[in-house]
């Protein structure tokens, strides 16, 4: 409990730092002496606070989605970006943009979530059909499926001159977050809360269909609930900030090394560390080339790739 409190304190400190980094120079003294109509307070209310909240909500929700994905697939190397879920959500958002351009963002997000749900269900169907003798074949199947879905999305975007939009969705970036453009992420956070409520069921489901059924739980319902949570979280983050790769892989694995695999215990850690990790990466991306920014997907992708390789090598050594 003491370590979790320390992690929460570090995350809060990173959130405070995030509020005061940017091209527009604002300070605590300036905010205390400024009226609500003056520029420092407007920058804080319209840009900095929404951006920080978006980072916290995205980081925590995507990390929990990765944890749920690993529990229902029973593989530590699976997360939305290695299972075709993110690419399917991107394809759905592209289709919604072409077919119903006048719909509100909520409607387009639901279409993206529907595509993400279908893509993830297809991934699970392929896993059941293919004999998997190596744990690493599971994410490889997901990456190949994501590549196919991504290629279809790229072809459609090319034909309708939407490649810049598709690139923006695939490149996670919080620099465009303003008040009124991040609130959908609360849906993702609600899904993370739902995952915590159903944590015991996911833990049991992670032990297999027969074990779950013997305990009297409906295995199929638990799987559907997990797929809905993963799909909604992936879609809300994608349409708001873009794709953030490897986040759902890094954080659950690090937390598992620290506190074990009981999801009831790991979800609070995953929420806090997911938010803290994305905050740290965002701050890093904003100060390396200040006043320019490095997109969050680049920073997380570089660090995530290194951690992914470490986990791979660690698994091989312990095999």
Protein described:
Its main location: membrane. The chain crosses the membrane at residues 6-32, 53-73, 93-124, 136-160, 180-199, 219-238, 244-260, 267-288, 294-313. Keywords: Cell membrane, Membrane, Transmembrane, Transmembrane helix, Transport. This protein has 319 residues and is an all-alpha fold. The chain contains 14 helices and no strands. It has helices at residues 2-19, 28-33, 39-73, 85-99, 105-129, 137-159, 163-170, 185-197, 199-205, 209-214, 219-240, 247-259, 263-287, 296-318. The longest helix is centred in the first third of the chain and has 35 residues, at 39-73. The mean pLDDT is 88.
User: What profile does the largest beta sheet have?
Assistant: none
Q: Would you list the SSEs in sequence order as H and E?
A: HHHHHHHHHHHHHH
Number of helices: 14
The rounded Rg comes to 20 Å
Q: What overall geometry do the principal axes of the alpha carbons give? A: globular
**What percent of residues adopt helix (DSSP H or I)?**
over 70%
Number of E strands: 0
| Low-confidence sequence ranges | none
State the end-to-end distance: 32 Å
Structural class from helices and strands? mainly alpha
Mean pLDDT value: 88
Percent strand equals: under 5%
Protein name: ABC transporter permease
Membrane topology: Multi-pass membrane protein
Pfam family, one: FecCD
InterPro entries: ABC_BtuC-like (IPR037294), ABC_transptr_permease_BtuC (IPR000522)
Key terms for this structure?
319 residues; mainly alpha; 0% strand
Structure in a nutshell:
The protein is mostly helical.
SSE blueprint:
Blueprint: H1 2-19, H2 28-33, H3 39-73, H4 85-99, H5 105-129, H6 137-159, H7 163-170, H8 185-197, H9 199-205, H10 209-214, H11 219-240, H12 247-259, H13 263-287, H14 296-318
Helix pairs in contact: 1-13, 3-8, 3-11, 3-12, 3-13, 4-5, 4-6, 4-11, 5-11, 6-7, 8-11, 8-13, 12-13, 12-14
């Amino acid at each position: 409990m003491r370590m979790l409190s320390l992690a929460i304190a570090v995350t809060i400190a990173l959130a405070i730092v995030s509020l005061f980094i940017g091209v527009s120079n604002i300070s605590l003294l300036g905010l205390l002496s400024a009226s609500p109509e003056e520029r420092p307070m407007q920058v804080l209310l319209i840009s900095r606070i929404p951006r920080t909240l978006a980072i916290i909500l995205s980081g925590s929700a995507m990390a929990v989605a990765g944890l749920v994905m690993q529990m229902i697939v029973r593989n530590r190397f699976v997360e939305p970006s290695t299972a075709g879920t993110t690419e399917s959500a991107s394809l759905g958002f592209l289709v919604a943009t072409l077919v119903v351009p006048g719909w509100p963002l909520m409607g387009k997000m639901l279409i993206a979530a529907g595509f993400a749900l279908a893509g993830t269900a297809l991934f699970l169907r392929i896993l059941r059909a293919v004999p998997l003798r190596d744990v690493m074949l599971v994410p490889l199947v997901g990456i190949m499926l994501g590549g196919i879905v991504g290629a279809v999305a790229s072809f459609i975007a090319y034909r309708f001159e939407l490649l810049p939009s598709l690139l923006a969705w695939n490149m996670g970036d919080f620099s465009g977050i303003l008040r009124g453009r991040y609130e959908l992420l609360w849906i993702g956070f609600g899904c993370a809360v739902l995952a915590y409520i159903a944590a015991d069921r996911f833990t049991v489901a992670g032990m297999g269909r027969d074990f779950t059924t013997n305990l009297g739980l409906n295995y199929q319902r638990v799987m559907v609930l997990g797929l809905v949570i993963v799909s909604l979280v992936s879609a809300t983050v994608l349409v708001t900030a873009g794709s953030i790769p490897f986040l759902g892989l890094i954080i659950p694995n690090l937390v598992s090394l620290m506190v074990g695999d009981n999801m009831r215990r790991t979800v609070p850690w995953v929420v806090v560390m997911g938010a803290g990790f994305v905050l740290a990466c965002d701050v890093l991306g904003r100060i390396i080339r200040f006043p320019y920014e490095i997109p969050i997907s680049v920073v997380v992708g570089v660090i995530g790739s290194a951690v992914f390789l470490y986990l791979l090598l660690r698994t091989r050594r312990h095999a």
